[in-house]
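Cross-check.
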Amino acid sequence: MAGMGVIAVVAVGLVMVIGTVLASWRRPKLGLADGKLRPCPDSPNCVCSCDSDAAHHIAPLAADDGTLHRLKDVLADMENVTVIAEDGNYLRAECVTPLLRFVDDLEFLDSAADGVIHVRSASRIGHSDLGANRTRVEEIRRRLRMSAEE
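Predicted model, tokenized:
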């Protein structure tokens, strides 16, 4: 009887791990909606410069004519970040967390008319990201500033 309890616990744990791994590769609805980046969900694991909600809002990246090109270089230099799609003024990348290999989505929309690049960074699963998406965007902002000064 005791052996069955251990097997049940192991089976439940295995199902939870497999479910988490599979969910981490699930791609939510991404891209533009009405010419803007999509707003964040209610969970606190997303930031977006197009979001009016204070908890999710982050400032867009300051931009000039060469910023989008420098942004691609910055992303290429970052560990665990891969550019997945580029379509005109839209860029999408995936960020993989080092330990558990969760995938976060990172999107950019170059708004030349406004002199900014809008940004959205969101976790695919979970509720809280402990500020990881906001930290990622601020690191990209810092690297872009440094590349402009070179």
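The two ends are 68 Å apart (CA to CA). The mean pLDDT is 86. Passed to J.P. for a second look.
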